Amino acid sequence: MATRNSAARDSAPATPAAFADIDALSPQMRKLGAQISLAAATDASVFIIGESGAGKEIVARAIHDASDRRNQPFVAVNCGAISGTLAHAELFGHEKGSFTGAVAQNAGYFEYASGGTLFLDEVTEMPPDMQVHFLRVLEAGTYQRVGGTDLLRANARIICASNRDPAASVADGRLRQDFLHRLLVIPLRVPPLRERGDDALVLAHQFLDTLNAQHGTKKTFAPRMLEAIGRYDWPGNVRELRNVVQRAYILADALLDAELHVRARGPQQAELRDGSLSFPVGMPLDRAQREFILATLAHHGGDKRLAAETLGVSLKTLYNRLDLYEKAESGPAS
Questions:
Q1: Cβ distance 156 to 118 under 8 Å?
Q2: Contact, 10 vs 76, CB < 8 A?
Q3: At 276, is the pLDDT very low, low, confident or very high (cuts 50, 70, 90)?
Q4: pTM, full prediction
């Protein structure tokens, strides 16, 4: 069986840290936890909406792990990274010789996820023509590999996610309305970290406890770091918080210190106002480019295809840049 394309991930189930200590979380997250339990009891499609880094895949995994499919695969697919010309083959598989380069039979994501859950991340970036094929599978429950004649039965629970408003995606032609209707059976919203009260402090302690347990250490937060965590609005949400805690842990001997590791707003921050981005004199060129790319992406509501067009680069180039920025946020491997 061929190796999965990089657009899909089937890693070992992660502990859903956002729900590890549910009694200590905010009312918004306790409500979401209850909704997750209700969704897990069915096989209905779930559409998770939330900002980048808010924890949409954690929610998807929590649904999977609480469902009857928990012992079957959880396959995550980045719809924005699926090649337009090979999308059908990637999703549904292909037979040997069905096209140039098809040197062996290959299963698709539906087949990999059979019996389990297929998580479609950034579903609003799925190519429109691919949405048509996907809709047919959802309606008929069967599909064929590219170049094949056998009907295969689709047995994967569909959970999808987007950081864009799905109604707006339909309005601007990015998402088919009939496709959305099949996906949006159970809508769930993941609130951004800034709306979740003291959750940032709860999660920061959970992340640090995990790191201490993994490495046999007893590092703690400096009081001023806890103060900084509590007052920062975390535009990168849970992902940014996790990266900050990990970076602080790596660099600290015993005490994680906010002054070094939590980004402060100051003269070296670009400022976005009325659709214009201003840079302070002295900002490094690579930092200015990063701010410009992220501001353009935010301006287009997270639509990477439109942002790439505006920037005059390919979608692949934009994804490569964003991957570099995320790795930089994560810091060196521990």
A1: yes
A2: yes
A3: low
A4: 0.69
Range of the domain at 302: 271-330
Other C-beta atoms lying within 10 Å of the C-beta of residue 257: 16
pLDDT band at 191 (very low <50, low <70, confident <90, very high): very high
* Shared-domain flag, residues 107 and 236: no
Examine the fold and report which residue of 175, 191, 207 is the final residue of a domain before the chain moves on.
191
- CATH code, domain carrying 203: 1.10.8.60
Our count of domains for the chain comes to 3
CA gap 63, 41 in Å, rounded: 9
176-190 pLDDT tens trace: 999 999 999 999 999
Q: What is the pLDDT of residues 87-102, one digit of tens each?
A: 777 777 767 655 656 6
Tokens 């940014």 locate to 240
Find the angle CA(172)-CA(326)-CA(112) to the nearest 5 degrees. Answer: 70
Q: Which amino acid is at 167?
A: A
Q: Is the dihedral angle over the CA atoms 22, 27, 29, 35 positive or is it negative?
A: positive
* SS3 label, residue 292: helix
> Are 95 and 168 within one domain?
yes
Verify that 31 and 76 share a domain, yes or no. yes
